[in-house]
Amino acid sequence: MEPAKIKAVMPVAGLGTRFLPATKATPKEMLPVVDKPAIQYVVEEAVAAGIRDVLMIIGRNKNAIANHFDAMPELEGKLTEKGDDRKLGHVQHSSSLADIHMLRQGEPKGLGHAVFRAKSHVGDSPFAVMLGDDLIDERDPLLPKMIEVNEQKKAMVIALMEVDPEQISMYGCASVEATDDPDVVKILDLVEKPAKEEAPSNLAIIGRYLLTPEIFDVLEHTQPGKGNEIQLTDALKEVATDDDNVDVYGVIFRGRRYDTGDKLDYIKAILQLASDREDLGPDLRPWIKDFAATL
Ligand code: UTP
């Protein structure tokens, strides 16, 4: 399927409790990473992969997200009057990126529930689920490979990353079988946030999924799991372990990824991305070195 026909679903209705109090009135996906909200990077990633249609599943505090991707006539007028084309470009860029649709989740009953809400919007085609607090560096594209595997295998595809075994209990974890491609594995089973001793591997699920509509038939009856939330991992586990359903494959991501939903990783993401930037890096890098020397 051509990427332009694939829709992206971005669930942004979580409560963001790990990042309180910043996320009390602001969705965590709107926290700035250098000078753009995290969610804008994710929309740009979808657009770079050829996707033009984005559905955001929104919760409380939705206005900030809707406004960010909408036109701002007053601000644009002022910048036009001032002749500040650079800033005007920045303001207009986010509202012209893609067709952005918004749908309310209702209650935050979990990621699986948020994805289920996208059913009528995505229809009968494969679609991407992209988490707004999980940033994939634009220099290490992941989605095109996932789209390719979905087409080849006619299967659902999840993104995996090798993590330190000590950290696997923070993620969904996959039990896998190798394929001819060292970056692609067949998923045999999945377990949400296992204790280190019970984890079948150190392959963690990260926030990119290429799903087929069969997922909705499963999510319809998926019961609340870990954290009393309807877990997407539980639904995918059912798909992977049910012989009658489509297969699930994993693409192992070996590039740069930033988890902006976690305070420490968020700080690291800003430093890494800013130090690589032409406008900020030359001043920031020596400062980081000097600062590190004082520690
Ligand atoms: P997380 O578990 O990372 O998000 O959900 P959270 O619940 O907001 O975060 P913490 O743990 O309390 O800090 C993964 C993704 O699913 C979305 C979140 O916005 C995030 O992008 N989500 C989660 C929903 O859209 N709805 C939900 O009910 C739960």
From TrEMBL:
Keywords: Nucleotidyltransferase, Transferase. It catalyses: alpha-D-glucose 1-phosphate + UTP + H(+) = UDP-alpha-D-glucose + diphosphate. It comes from the Bacteria. InterPro entries: GalU_uridylyltTrfase_bac/arc (IPR005771), NTP_transferase_dom (IPR005835), Nucleotide-diphossugar_trans (IPR029044). It is an enzyme of class 2 (transferase). Residues 9-274 form the Nucleotidyl transferase domain. The keyword Nucleotidyltransferase applies. It holds the Pfam family NTP_transferase. CDD domains: UGPase_prokaryotic. The keyword Thylakoid does not apply. GO terms for biological process: UDP-alpha-D-glucose metabolic process. Its EC number is 2.7.7.9. GO terms for molecular function: UTP:glucose-1-phosphate uridylyltransferase activity. Belongs to the UDPGP type 2 family. This is UTP--glucose-1-phosphate uridylyltransferase. It comes from Microbacterium sorbitolivorans. The lineage of its organism: Bacteria, Bacillati, Actinomycetota, Actinomycetes, Micrococcales. The gene is galU.
